[in-house]
Design brief:
alpha+beta; Thrombin, subunit H; 41% strand
Length: 137
């Protein structure tokens, strides 16, 4: 019992320590990638401001409230070995945050709650190609 409490205490210590720094489990890439968002009957053609294998942050022109379900298509540059110029990744998501932008429009944070393993792996592989190894540790 005492060993379990110590383990929990250690985990809490790590969590509180990491809460001061980066808390994300997956690396997030600051990159503009073509993004299509379909929400409430609207199609938004936009670009990511940042992306990870579990979500994206972007700008849209109309207000869409948090908890709205969306369909996403992200266009990733194809790998050097591919004949295609882009590699489209499609998934379902939900808007988890909507922020009014002073310059007009809205910034939204999307959580990919309906992404299969293959598309998630494609995003992860792309991010790992771009980010320096030191930031992945």
């Amino acid at each position: 019992m005492l060993g379990q409490n110590n383990q929990k205490g250690n985990r809490r210590g790590k969590m509180s320590k990491s809460s001061k720094s980066e808390r994300r489990l997956y690396p997030r890439l600051q990159q503009e990638l073509p993004l299509k968002v379909i929400a409430n009957g609207y199609d938004f053609a936009t670009q990511t401001q940042n992306i990870s294998c579990v979500g994206a942050y972007c700008h849209i022109s109309k207000y869409v409230p948090p908890f709205t379900k969306v369909m996403i298509t992200v266009s990733l540059p194809a790998s050097k070995n591919s004949k295609n110029k882009t590699n489209n990744v499609e998934c379902k998501g939900v808007i988890v945050r909507t922020e009014d932008e002073a310059k007009g429009g809205y910034n939204i944070a999307i959580f990919f709650n309906g992404i299969q393993e293959s598309p998630r792996r494609k995003i992860t592989e792309y991010i790992n190609q771009i980010l320096p190894e030191s930031t992945l540790a």
